[in-house]
Design goal:
The complex is a heterodimer of chains A (about 750) and B (about 150). Chain A has about 750 residues and is an alpha+beta fold. Helix content of chain A is about 30%, strand content about 20%. Chain B is built from six helices and five strands; from the N terminus they run E-E-H-E-E-E-H-H-H-H-H. In chain B, the strands form two sheets. A three-stranded antiparallel beta sheet of chain B has the order 4-3-5. A two-stranded antiparallel ribbon of chain B has the order 1-2. The chains are: A alpha+beta (about 750), B alpha+beta (about 150).
């Protein structure tokens, strides 16, 4: 393996185009301003980079730096480049590349500023631009926040166009034909006489000239692939068992390892006895790693067995030991001292809540695990002057830095192979499992070691969605919602997660209030206040962080107010909505579902919810029926607008998948703690949704919003409140707490 | 001991109480068989033994009672099984990690029921977990595969 390969790849990324006899389009653009309008506001020397296309005499490689965790972004990235490059992306090699500043993601940080996504005002845009610059300078290469398409779609099309125009320039120089007389199509530059020169035959010529960056992107009307149904590039592999994931790495003479960490996350280890484990079949060694111990063995099963046999004296971490005590912490945190943000404060809420009909409610959501089906895993080979890591990660730059730090090597001596993930839902935005795998491999230099967490370890040592509490008061008058005052209380996700992988940005924790403060309602007296509770255990981003709880609180309470006012849930939302894109999705979901109110007959109920998250307005309508075997979800209608839909088949999958994720966890899942330990350690106690509970789905993407956005998360948040609203319509029972199966029997 | 896997006899030198799952994955590098839970709650490790869908995490190596078929034995990219064709046509997979197990389960269902109803599919497939939520397409793909197999 290769050290030669390592050097070659690194050199490619720093712009030496001679390596491999190839052309690294875009690497030339280092420190040069680019015509990419997304980055027009960058200053002198703050260039956006487009090193996304490599052509050698042997083939074309497309660099697709956003991690594919199942959301299909590898295909989308390739398709965006290929549309302008005029190639069938299925004929190219896809490579996630090495972590590099060139692949920075500006959207994650810029969307974490204290402005609603629909605020395009000057202050909001200026602060966002500043965060984009910080992301670029820090080389933050996150995949997350439904940001990949929004962040990269122009960059990638421009990279494809730059490559194409440069190849045409090379062909013009070789043949003497004017560039204007050249066309491209299907891997070839085409001369006026019909003669075709393969891109790969032009690689060496193109390497000698400056890339043509003054390109015009093709309008949507000329797209051959985008915006039309196409086949995911990984669909055959994933339908034949031939897709290798991070956990599937096989290397010669590889050993296997697993980890046993303190069940009370963050607690230390007073001592241990590994004698019994070391005496077991196939066990090579026991090593100390972050948070606990690891067993290195001849196969994973031997390692699992030995890990169970370790006798460890764990020390308790420094936060409350049980869920009940943690809830008490949240209740106690609802004080002025802990006030963290008030990002929505319209009208005069205090005045509106004097007299009239006042409604009060308290809402709760529990801890939740990510529980991606592929347990966390990483394979690492540490050698004298290099470290190589194979894993599925959403933070490759963080993994690279950790590998260098742990081994004492230079960052340039780290090679990272980012592999497809068997799900993530935000879990792989942390790299704790890779750190352990590097520590394990560092104990045995020269031997590749694959570390695999057991499912039990994966559930016990998640960075879970935090528990979240809301207290709300509202007022209705004259059949209208006139006041809403929502207090949302949770440990700070920004402080916990950003603190581990980025830096804690100054100012309020906007994620704590996402899905509440940023909803485009024009309620006359309207206030959202965030309270940051003490930190408890480390927590993480869970599909649609913040909003996955706040949307349930906000929409649930709004439904209560609308009901008290005697209004129709859809009509009153439409009256209150102050955003054209949002109004359109509500109108669309009404038409799709033939909305005529929440009453759809005896024993049945219809609910609705709306959420504007990750820049995407989504409205969902849900029908339920009471049956002899329990409450059944019949149909779900989803209308959303993410702007241009590049990848419609996959977009539909993301809408339904995200809604199923939101519904299944709201119905069936929670993590609870006793003696600091998670009590739900496997899927018998944490099922999510299964096939028999899955309703029919009806989706529509309007494609009218001006800005392109991503769909990995947005349909998650409104799913739970829409279901709660439907259950209320069917049963008269208002659910204010997850999990719903505590209160309702589902079929 | 000898195992017949996808028609080929393979020798493994591993303890008889080791789950078939780990013998396949770590002993024989057959990584298309996935580890998800280890306690028969997710179905990602589903293979056929003697034509019957089983959870390979629950079958001790010493208890394997017949020839083993994995997803490779069901079909390959060049020679797809009707279930795999349907999975591709409906673009079922998102992360895809559960899908080998889903397809092995679906193939077992269709071998025994050529015209499954939605309720039959729910009964047969609900023990196979998909965390991405591809269920609507799984349902559609099973129906399509059933039609293909009936017309074959």
């Amino acid at each position: 393996m290769g050290r030669a390969k390592t050097i070659a790849r690194r050199s490619f990324l720093i712009g030496s185009a001679a390596i491999l006899g190839g052309v690294a389009f875009g690497a030339y653009l280092v420190n040069r301003p680019t015509p990419n309008p997304l980055h027009d506001d960058l200053g002198e020397g703050e260039a956006a980079l487009t090193p996304f296309v490599k052509i050698t005499p042997d083939g074309i490689t497309l660099i697709v730096p956003r991690a594919d965790v199942g959301q299909g972004i590898a295909s989308t990235q390739a398709m965006l480049i290929a549309e302008e490059l005029d190639i069938d992306p299925a004929t190219a090699t896809l490579d996630p590349g090495q972590p590099h500043q060139a692949y920075f993601n500006g959207s994650v940080a810029s969307e974490s500023t204290p402005f609603p996504a629909w605020d395009h005002g000057r202050v909001a845009e200026t602060v966002r631009d500043l965060m984009i610059t910080v992301s670029r300078l820090t080389g933050s290469q996150f995949t997350g926040g439904s940001s990949s398409t929004a962040d990269l779609h122009e960059t990638l099309r421009r990279a494809g166009a730059t490559a194409r125009e440069t190849l045409k320039a090379a062909a013009a120089a070789r043949t003497g034909v004017a560039i204007a007389d050249l066309r491209t199509g299907d891997w070839h530059v085409i001369l006026p006489d019909g003669m075709r020169i393969a891109y790969t035959d032009l690689a060496a010529d193109a390497a000698q000239i400056d890339p043509v960056t003054d390109v015009v992107l093709r309008p949507a009307t000329e797209w051959k692939r985008l915006w039309k149904p196409y086949r995911r590039l990984d669909i055959v592999a994933k339908s034949t068992g031939t897709q290798d994931y991070g956990i599937d790495v096989v290397l010669p003479d590889m050993l296997h390892a697993t980890v046993r960490a303190n069940p009370g996350r963050g607690g230390a280890m007073a001592g241990y006895n590994a004698d019994a484990a070391l005496a077991m079949q196939g066990v090579r060694s026991v090593v100390e790693v972050n948070e606990g111990l690891a067993v290195i063995a001849e196969n994973t099963w031997f390692a699992f067995q030995a890990a169970d046999a370790l006798e460890v004296d764990w020390l308790a971490p420094d936060y409350p030991a049980s869920s009940a005590e943690m809830w008490q912490v949240l209740e106690d945190a609802h004080t002025e001292d802990n006030r963290n943000s008030r990002l929505r404060d319209d009208g005069d809420v205090e005045f509106a809540l004097i007299g009239g009909e006042i409604i009060e409610a308290e809402y709760r959501t529990p801890f939740l695990a990510h529980a991606a089906l592929e347990p966390l895993s990483a394979t690492v080979l540490v050698e004298t002057d290099s470290v190589t890591v194979w894993t599925a990660t959403q933070v490759p730059h963080v993994v690279r830095d950790a590998a260098a730090e742990i081994t004492g090597l230079d960052k340039a001596q780290v090679t990272l192979h980012v592999l497809p993930a068997g799900g993530s839902f935000g879990r792989r935005l942390d790299h704790d499992y890779v750190v352990q795998a590097i520590q394990i491999a560092a104990s045995l230099p020269g031997t590749p070691i694959k570390t695999t967490w057991s499912r039990e370890e994966d559930m016990t040592h998640d960075f879970p969605r935090p528990l979240h509490l809301a207290r709300a008061r509202g007022a209705v008058a004259d059949g209208r919602v006139v006041g809403c005052d929502l207090d949302t209380i949770s440990p700070s996700l920004v402080r916990s997660w950003f603190g581990r992988v980025f830096f804690v940005p100054p100012g309020p924790d906007v994620m704590l209030a996402w899905g509440a403060f940023d909803q485009p309602y024009a309620i006359p007296n309207y206030r959202v206040t965030g309270y940051a509770a003490p930190q408890l255990m480390p927590i993480g981003s869970w599909r649609s962080p913040g909003a996955c709880s706040n949307s349930f609180f906000h929409e649930g309470f709004l439904s209560e107010l609308i009901h008290a006012a005697g209004d129709d849930p859809l009509a009153e939302r439409l009256r209150l909505i102050d955003d054209a894109d949002s109004r359109r999705v509500l109108e669309a979901v009404g038409e799709m579902s033939n909305w005529s109110g929440a009453d759809i007959g005896a024993g049945r109920g219809r609910g609705i919810a709306f959420a504007h998250t990750h820049g995407v307005p989504v409205a969902e309508v849900i029908d339920v029926t009471m049956t002899d075997s329990g409450l059944r979800i019949d149909d779900v209608w989803i209308a959303a607008d993410c702007g241009t839909v590049f990848d419609p088949v996959n977009a539909e999958a993301q809408l339904t998948g995200a809604a199923i994720f939101g519904l299944g966890h709201a119905m069936n899942c929670e993590l609870t703690y006793e003696n600091h330990a998670v009590q739900q350690t496997n899927f018998h106690a944490f099922e999510g949704m299964r096939l028999h509970q899955t309703p029919r789905f009806h989706t529509q993407l309007l494609g009218l919003a001006e800005r392109v956005r991503g769909l990995g998360e947005p349909a998650t948040a409104p799913a739970a409140p829409a279901l709660a609203d439907a259950i209320f319509a069917a049963t008269g029972q208002r659910l204010r707490e997850m999990l719903f199966s505590k209160f309702v029997d589902f079929a | 001991m000898d195992l017949v896997i996808n028609g080929e006899t393979r020798n493994v030198d591993l303890p008889p109480d080791m789950p078939l799952l780990w013998a396949l994955r770590d002993g024989l590098n057959i990584t298309s068989v996935k580890y998800g839970c280890g306690i028969a709650q997710c179905g990602a490790c589903t293979v056929h033994i003697d034509g019957e869908a089983v959870r390979s995490c629950q079958v001790a190596l010493g208890d394997v009672w017949g020839p083993v078929t994995t997803i490779y034995g069901l079909g390959t990219p060049d020679a797809l099984h009707a279930v795999q064709k349907a999975w591709i046509e409906h673009q079922v997979a998102q992360c895809g990690y559960c899908q080998s197990g889903q397809m092995m389960q679906a193939a077992d269902l269709l071998a025994n029921n050529t015209e499954p109803s939605d309720a039959d599919i729910d009964d047969a497939m609900s023990a196979n977990l998909c965390r991405c939520g591809t269920y609507p397409r799984i349902r559609a793909a099973v129906h399509t595969a059933a039609t293909t197999l009936r017309e074959a």
